[in-house]
Task: inverse folding
């Protein structure tokens, strides 16, 4: 692969990685916020335990799934993002061909 393609792949992976973990951090903050305020109005200890347990399960499974997803994306990023980049480049060139009144069908057939 070209160095430019590698940089683009890594940039897309890094962006997805950062957004995924930002979402996990936001989920933890949101669950913590909701749990904090709900526990202030719940007096029953059984319900409090259920709230703690369900919040913990939700956070553990969501965090684990994002970890697995980012690991998988790291392993296969050349294929996953390379395919995305090729499609984005082709769409950009098709739009340019349409703008210049070129034959789009010929372009697509020649670049499969």
Result:
């Amino acid at each position: 692969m070209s160095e430019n393609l590698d940089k683009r792949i890594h940039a897309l992976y890094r962006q997805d990685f950062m957004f995924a973990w930002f979402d996990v951090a936001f989920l933890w903050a949101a669950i913590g916020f909701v749990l904090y305020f709900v526990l202030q109005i719940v007096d029953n200890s059984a319900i409090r335990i259920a709230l703690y347990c369900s919040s913990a399960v939700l956070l553990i499974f969501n965090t684990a799934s994002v970890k697995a997803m980012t690991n998988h994306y790291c392993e296969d990023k050349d294929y996953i993002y390379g395919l995305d980049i090729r499609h984005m480049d082709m769409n950009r060139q098709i739009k340019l061909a349409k703008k210049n009144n070129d034959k789009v069908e010929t372009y697509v057939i020649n670049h499969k």
